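User: Predict the complex with prephenic acid.
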Amino acid sequence: MNNIHVIGLGLLGGSFALALKKEKPSLNFTGFDASERNLKDALTLGIIDQSSEVIPAETDVVILATPVDTLESLLLSALDQIQENTLVIDFGSTKEALCKAVADHPKRTQYLAGHPIAGTEYSGPKAAKPDLLEKKVFIICEMEKTDVHLKGMAYDILESLNMKLRFMDPEEHDRQLAFVSHLSHISSFMLGKTVLDKMEDDKNIFDMAGSGFASTVRLAKSSPAMWAPIMEANQGNILDALDAYISNLSKFREKIAEEDKSGLKEEMASINKIGDILDLGR
Ligand SMILES: NC(=O)c1ccc[n+]([C@@H]2O[C@H](COP(=O)([O-])OP(=O)(O)OC[C@H]3O[C@@H](n4cnc5c(N)ncnc54)[C@H](O)[C@@H]3O)[C@@H](O)[C@H]2O)c1
Ligand SMILES: O=C(O)C(=O)C[C@]1(C(=O)O)C=C[C@@H](O)C=C1
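Assistant: Here is the predicted structure with prephenic acid placed in the model:
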């Protein structure tokens, strides 16, 4: 393996390239970004060695790290262009529609559907960090549909970055991510909105905001260009997650309104175990 081509040189594409460069300094990185500014920054920051709008013929691995509403056309066009020993991996946050779109492509075996469970609220090449993916989970969907040798090359790369591989089907992936990722972003955005609305009456309200507010509202700084397409791609599962969340919020509101102190304590105590569950997985 000598040549990697990255399309989308933002937080994820950039962090991947920086990490792999550190691990395998002899690799050559080419890449492209639709934003001229981001492409320039990626070159300046050493994320890629050369820019190229087409996928160079000698490329071993193509990484697609653009918003999910751009992935289908980029993936189909990449598969149409590549040689028979080239692998395409995408990093998209939703998987069901993309796996369906590529199901009958004659080069389906040259695609690996991936999702790194790592990120921050920041975007673009300047936010990229070489340690972002370190020890994080990398979900692979429909692994049985990828050519065994190409899959081996992908596992070598991901293991060299110390990523933990997990396998699931794309429908299950999108159902579960709606709850553990997409809902937390919506919840953070709406908390941010609720307090921003309140600022209309109470101009200095943010002077009172401590670290509790900062940590729960962190995700409200996330990129609309990345998140609006995720909400479109995973609409049904996100609506299910939101219905469950709104129902829980309403029941909790009721307990507060009814001054049901013991009910509130019981409810919160039963939710405290989330700390142990999360710590166990780390
Ligand atoms: N940010 C996260 O926490 C996170 C985590 C895991 C997966 N992902 C997924 O990874 C992908 C990239 O996310 P990111 O956080 O790196 O976003 P980002 O905004 O930091 O980077 C995306 C880059 O893609 C470029 N781009 C957009 N459309 C393009 C196109 N048609 N052709 C070429 N370049 C294009 C943008 O200019 C930008 O530089 C998304 O699919 C996202 O769902 C994000
Ligand atoms: O930690 C963050 O800031 C993230 O938003 C990362 C996060 C997540 O929800 O956990 C965001 C989207 C992804 O597809 C995967 C990871």
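DSSP finds ten helices and eight strands in the chain.
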